[in-house]
Amino acid sequence: xxxxxxxxxxxxxxxxxxxxxxxxxxxxxxxxxxxxxxxxxxxxxxxxxxxxxxxxxxxxxxxxxxxxxxxxxxxxxxxxxxxxxxxxxxxxxxxxxxxxxxxxxxxxxxxxxxxxxxxxxxxxxxxxxxxxxxxxxxxxxxxxxxxxxxxxxxxxxxxxxxxxxxxx
Length: 168
Prior knowledge:
By secondary structure, this protein is of the alpha/beta class. The chain is 26% helix and 20% strand. The strands form 2 sheets. It has a 3-stranded mixed sheet with strand order 2-1-5, with no helix packed on it. It has a 3-stranded mixed sheet with strand order 3-4-6. Strand 1 (71-76) and strand 2 (79-85) form a beta hairpin. The radius of gyration is 17 Å and the shape is globular.
C-alpha cells in the first residue's frame, strides 16, 4: 500500500474515533489544548538554546554536554529544537522526516496501536506534531544511552508525539 493511501486510511479511522471515550483515565475535553504554540527554531548546538529551555532541561537531568549520551532528541511543545547522533549505527530522526520513507511507514507507522483506540489516540494522529524515531542498527553497540526530552512550555499546548524506537 502506498504511503499516501495508508495515511489517508489512518486519517479516516482517527476522525471516526474522535469522540470515543478512553477505557482508562478521565475523559478530558481536548478542544482547549489543540492549538499551535509559538515556533522555537531548531538549533545546531545546545549552547544556542534559549536560556529558559536550558534551565528546564538541566533540572530534569539532560546531559547538555553530550558526554554521557549516544545521541539527543529535544522537543519543546511540538517543535523539534535539537537532534544529534554520535554513533554511526544509530539514527535519530523527527517523525516528519521518517514519514518521507515509504518502507518506514509500511513497517512501523501506527502498526502497534490502533489509531482509533480512543479519542486521545485519534487526536495524537490528527493533531499531534513532533515525535522521534530512534533506530539502533543490527549488531550495533553504543556505550551510552540515547536521551530524549519532550516538554511542554506553553500552558495550552496539546503535546501528543508519536515516538517510535526500532532495535534491529
